[in-house]
Amino acid sequence: MEATIALAGNPNSGKTTLFNALTGARQHIGNYPGVTVEKKEGTYINKNNKFHVVDLPGTYSLTAYSLEEVVARDYILNEKPNMVVNIVDASNLERNLYLTLQFMEMGVPVCISLNMMDVAENRGIGIDTGRLAELMGVPVIPTVARRGEGKQALMEAVAAGIEKNAYSGPLCISYGEDIDRALDEMETILQDSPLEDERYPRRWLAMKYLENDEKITALGSRKAPAVSESLAKIARRVEAHLQSTLGVNAEAVIADYRYGYIRSVMKKGVLTERPNLDRLFMSDRIDKVVTNRFFGPLIMVGVLLTLYHFTFTYSGIPVGWVEGLFGWLGETADGLLPEGLLKSLVISGMIDGVGGVMGFVPLIMFMFLGISILEDSGYLARVAFMLDRVFRVFGLHGSSVMAFIVSGGIAGGCAVPGVMATRTLKSPRERLATLLTVPFMNCGAKLPVFALLVAAFFPKNEALMMFIITLIAWTGALLVARLLRSTAIRGESTPFVMELPPYRLPTFKGLTIHTWERTWQYIKKAGTVILTVSVILWAMMTFPGLSDDQRARYTNQRSDILNSASPAVQAELQHMEESVALSPAAIEVRDALLAVDGEEAEAGLRNSVAGRIGGVLEPISRLAGFDWRTNIALVGGFAAKEVVVSTLGTAYSLGEVDPEETGSLAGRLAAAPGWSPAVAFALIIFTIFYAPCFVSVVCIAREAGSWKWGVFSMVFNTVLAFMLAAIAFQVGRGLGF
């Protein structure tokens, strides 16, 4: 049997953990059509059954307050999966069953995965799953997703439910005389109307009008304006009556009756033991220390330093392996390919360009592993909770914290999903301030730039420097947010409510999947976008090149140097590869020849399209310590920040700085004239704050509803970045760095 099932549930219910347990490596990630919400799909195969599994966005309800709720609801209504597997947190049964009722009212087949049974047992909660299944009228299977327990029984129950097709139809709950009478009246109007659709049960549609669901009412106005107005008129009448008699709206009454229905189920023998409400659970005991006003921030600093120390300490050896691999590829291509443009393209444009970025794959992987541990354990939610107090001072909302973290607030995220995460903010002003400042975070694209510069100029304090870079990014983002909220985006802050998930031990499988997903995204970007941009920039750094007269002049210089040498020295240089050691005279001639080669390569690079652009910007960029080569890299960084590394790799391979320096790009930069710790730190500052990558700008414009904010983020961020970089360089140079 082949079928499609959808996994749905509250955030922190273990939904994604179950998805990973079911699909393993047989999964892929994309976006839902027309929106940027992440879509995870995979395959589960067992015996004769093959299930296409879709992991829906986590949501507390199906009322269209956020894009995630709309996406989850629309997928179920439009795609009609064979079964919705509702993952329910057994330790928060009453609240989680609220979503279950909404699925049942929609008229879709449901199977409950009663997850985190171990947590419920530890909290003294005993649940009679058979009784719950009997009362709810749907299968209920106990699971512990992080250990893979119950998944086979769950999928067997799903298969049996699909085969029997025994679902009885939409659930009907009484919502009191006023609302029930209105629902009956609205169902009568909907019958045989243009709005009647097999996707939408009539009672469910009527309920959406009472809940003032904007998406459904807009759909009704388009398809059947007269019918929609009749329904809206009844909804307004009920709303006015409830407000005048009870002082509440219809949506609140509906929610109360749903929770009343759930409580009545709980009282019929479902809970075999009452939880000890006075008991201080393990997570609560940990939180008394971890989220303490004094110790919490200190612990957070310690965690971040440990993360960076772990990353740089243990990724060093594999980074060396990858650099060695690309070095070997370069040497092999150098020996196999004839001199010319093809050789230059392969070595300088492709191997050195992409190799500079790919060399950081092990470091990125270790960073993502550390982030996954913090995320899966529940600690990142505590970070958001603690930082909420700080964010409110700067005019932001507590939910902004997660957008910052997703963007790379610790390291290794991406600004695009960070911008998307601002959709959870209800206040337009707080949302705009957040999406304009999340690009300041240290995303995975910036990490190779920082790692390169830190390794080259601050090798003894790598972990500390990365922590300082993180502090600078956060401080800058908060100060800019405060500036925006005090000027262009004034308005009051809204309250913040957040659920802290219980602490859990991350599973090896979950960590492996999360780490590999993010690392593979980085590798794909390096092999596609970065490769394409590197080749384009190689062409810009190669053409038009030197004129025939200029080439002839350098050729003559080499001939003059060789002709001035004695016959013995000429013979020695001719068989240089066979010689054990060169004589001092031969070394002097060889260095002179190499100096001419380097001068010719640099002249060709300066005369290229990219070189000319970099040269035009150099009089201004010198204020921040940037030369024309660095300018080329930074211009390329507007496409993607990783391009800064790949372009520096290409630029410094087209014209060697030091004939004796054949090591990594970090070594080349450390030996290059004009580079210093002050220049490196200024470049770090500029990279933190300057314009987001092009994809992020497009997302900002789309989310803000206007391209003016996308252009604003490019111009404002770049001007701010240059001012701060210039100050950092001038101060650093004044201090002798």
List keywords for this structure.
737 residues, alpha/beta, Rossmann fold, Helix Hairpins, two-stranded antiparallel ribbon, 32 helices, 9 strands, 7% strand, elongated
How far apart the termini lie comes to: 69 Å
Helix percentage range: 55-70%
Largest beta-sheet details: 7 strands, mixed
Give the tally of β-strands. Answer: 9
Tell the overall outline: elongated
What is the spatial order of strands in the main beta sheet? 2-3-4-1-5-6-8
Report the structural category. alpha/beta
Mean pLDDT: 83
**What is the rounded Rg?**
31 Å
* Helical segment count: 32
Give unreliable regions as ranges: 30-36, 655-662
How much beta, percentage-wise? 5-15%
Brief write-up:
With 737 residues, the protein is α/β, with parallel strands linked by helices.
Report on the structure:
The longest helix is centred in the middle third of the chain and has 42 residues. The strands form 2 sheets. This protein has a 7-stranded mixed β-sheet with strand order 2-3-4-1-5-6-8, sandwiched between helices. The protein has a two-stranded antiparallel sheet with strand order 7-9. It is built from 32 helices and 9 strands. By secondary structure, it is α/β, with parallel strands linked by helices.
